[in-house]
């Protein structure tokens, strides 16, 4: 058996080189995944990462998609990766057969687009086994201040699905912050308080107000509709209700100055949103200094709308005997902790930050960073699956792949579009994105199917294209 594997390795120099490369990267340039403080960037020893055994088993399939989901600009970096793949494929075709490489390259477009779009949909909507946080502290709780259900115009999931996602990602509590309204959120909070909704995670009422800048309004107790209202009116009303106002992702757009919001009596600023810290780091430091000098809190907003399983930002607060508190006491403890500056923001760190304008260089950088962060079991998974495929020698019929990938992926994407359309029916007055995605998926799916049929026709009409 060993001699057989040795001979297989000799016949597959690329796989052999790849195996030695990932082992070498981990031996000499390993960068462990850490939970770090978003202010100091130092590791937080009370928290660690749990890597699901299913992920380790399926690492070559799910690993890189999950890594991209945690990127600062996941969509842009994902699209860039596929552009690199398509160009690399064209170069390989050119080297192999200069005479017909252009025809082969063009005829591969439907299959490449089908795979790229299908994998993107799979990354967003399937419960992939993402890494999760482990809280080793007895008294610290983890909470989120920024989340949307499908009662927001751009939310993809129900409130119940939001609760499941937060529970799975280690949160003890979260504020549900629909865009500009809160009646449905207040109803859910009352249901949980009365035992009609699951107890964990603890649910608190908020709003994301689209004012001069987006702001999260936390700890609301009364109905509030903020469409078209001035900052000063909304901030005053939130404070009347005993709530707090945090400026959301100010660093993304920066319409008004930090001083403007301080003078408007906001209570704090986000320094991290989704997978992004305030960037560049000079802006990050400006926000921190302004908050420290004016006794304002810092927030980490997950800003979760339902896109994928991964989480990269958490808020931490020391609240002893959390489980023994009743519903109102839990909410008050979180709000009091924010008022007194007891909140810490922690983030998932698995790569060095990349300037947003350089995302065209992201594919090689991401691939290197991804393999640097693997543990021994994930490396074994990569090599093991590789050995399996070169041992079994699965012969790939490229002609069939070029024909059937667009047809199959197009059909699957259309089905997902129909599912999203059905999901939009209860919230048709609140939500836009479900219908928009449904229409987009339907059009993309139809285009892919047409592309697959055209490829089949061209291959039958001009068989020389796929020869050799």
Automatic annotation (TrEMBL):
Where are the bilayer-spanning segments? 12-29, 78-95, 107-128, 376-394, 401-420, 440-459
What are the alphabetically sorted keywords of the record? Membrane, Transmembrane, Transmembrane helix
Is Nuclease one of the keywords?
Answer: no
Show the SUPFAM superfamilies listed in the entry.
PHP domain-like (SSF89550)
A GO molecular function held by the record: 5'-3' RNA exonuclease activity
**Any keyword Ion transport?**
no
**Listed name of the protein:** Polymerase/histidinol phosphatase N-terminal domain-containing protein
